[in-house]
Design brief:
The protein has a single domain, classed as Nuclear Transport Factor 2, Chain: A, CATH 3.10.450. It has helices at about 1-20, 25-45, 50-55, 70-85; strands spanning about 55-65, 70, 85-100, 105-120, 125-135, 140-150. It is built from four helices and six strands. The longest helix has 23 residues, at about 25-45. About 15% of the residues are buried. By secondary structure, the protein is of the alpha+beta class.
Length: about 150
């Protein structure tokens, strides 16, 4: 059993080592992820469905409290079209609290604040936490997993 544990930990350590990149590459990747995130944020501010969809993977999974899982780009397209048809989003603030880049994946954790203005009715303000997992596809960073957790107003 001890040999199995040593083999497992040796394999795990070697895999972690394989994912390491020079510090300059990690910084460049972090910058590229933040640029892609800003493109995604601006797409929502402009109600630009095509631009928002360009920042997600074909196999995206979006997990929002109280909403059935959104799986794949077709489901995400329906969600984005529906949300953008119902609401304008003039304010979307993202506070990226942690950015972790390893190889072709990045995790971004933070808090958001948004103002949704429905086409008819009163505006609503939302606050919460988010976690996104980004994946590099070619030269582009795209959201592969997205989790939102709304919080009570502060």
């Amino acid at each position: 059993m001890k040999k199995l544990h040593r083999a497992f930990f040796g394999l795990a350590l070697s895999l972690i080592g394989c994912g390491s990149r020079p510090p300059g590459s990690i910084a460049a990747d972090s910058t590229a992820v933040m640029q892609a995130y800003e493109q995604y944020r601006r797409a929502w501010l402009k109600s630009d469905t095509a631009a928002a969809l360009a920042r997600i993977t074909d196999d995206v999974r979006i997990l929002i409290s109280g909403v059935p899982d959104i799986v794949g780009k077709a489901d995400a397209r329906k969600l984005f079209l529906d949300e953008m048809a119902k609401y304008d989003v003039p304010v979307l603030k993202l506070d990226h609290q942690e950015v972790i880049v390893r190889g072709d994946h990045a995790i971004v954790i933070g808090r958001y604040e948004e103002l949704q203005v429905p086409k008819t009715g009163a505006p609503s303000q939302g606050f919460g936490r988010y976690m996104t997992i980004w994946r590099r596809e070619g030269n582009e960073w795209r959201i592969a997993r997205y989790m939102l957790n709304e919080l009570p107003h502060p």
